[in-house]
Amino acid sequence: MRVSRTPTYRTWDNMRTRCFNRNNENYKYYGARGITVCPQWNTFAAFLADMGERPPGKTLDRIDPNGNYEPGNCRWATPATQRWNIRPTPGKSVRPLKLNGRIVSLSEACTELRVAHAAARRRLAAGVGVFWALYSPGKKGRFPVHVIRTCVVCGSGYEPSPCRRKTGQTCSPACKAAVLSQRTTAHYAEVRKRREREARQ
Q1: pTM for this model (two decimals)
Q2: 3-state SS of 162-182?
């Protein structure tokens, strides 16, 4: 593979473009703000020697978002890490939340817990605590998220889908079929007994 086609080379080239090319759409966020690239990284070989190959799923990130691209201020980071490492923007904020021992954004927490982002944001804005903003029941008496039930057939724990949280009793279609079969058998047995009693009278 040609060097110019590697992810690391493209990262290096994009870094220089947004800092030095006034026609680049991202120049206003970098070069226009005074963000530049250190002289020793003017060659790709020097950049590669300091940073190494770009790991899968990571991109170049500046530890100090107001600092330059230089050794000691750059790292390979995941998109989730970079979301927390941004300069403050008027009117916008990223609120860190602690979920299961991890620091995540409100959007990530809502996606993981399957909670409406708008509802959680309104609750937080109203002064509701983080726990109740994410775990309190919604409208129409819906159950809180992560409702764990025990299957009446196999006994395994499962989380019912939102539309079945009030009625679901089984963890799979096979177990549901077994329950229906048992109910059908019991129903016809009861019908036979009733008819036998009526015949004896």
Answers
A1: 0.49
A2: HHHCCCCCCCCHHHHHHHHHH
Under 8 Å between Cβ of 24 and 17: yes
Length of the chain, please? 201
pLDDT tens digits, 99-129: 777 777 777 778 777 788 788 888 877 777 7
Residue among 50, 29, 28 nearest 39 (CA): 50
Residue type (1 letter), 175 = C
Residue listed under structure tokens 């966020």:
29
CA atoms of 158 and 180, how far apart (whole Å): 19
Residue 113 CB contacts under 8 Å (≥ 6 apart), including other chains:
99, 134, 135, 145, 146
158 three-class SS? strand
Give the start-to-end residue ranges of the domains of the chain.
1-93, 95-144, 149-200
Alpha helices in 57-105 (DSSP H): 79-84
Query: Cβ(62)–Cβ(73) under 8 Å?
Result: yes
Distance between CA 117 and CA 197 in Å, rounded?
59
Nearest by Cα to 35 from 11, 23, 17, 57: 17
pLDDT digits (tens, 9 = 90+) for 28-62: 989 999 999 999 999 999 999 999 999 999 999 99
Start-to-end CA distance of the chain, whole Å, equals 92
Rounded distance between C-alpha atoms, residue 14 and residue 1, angstroms: 19
Determine the Cα–Cα distance for residues 175 and 163; give it in Å rounded to an integer: 18
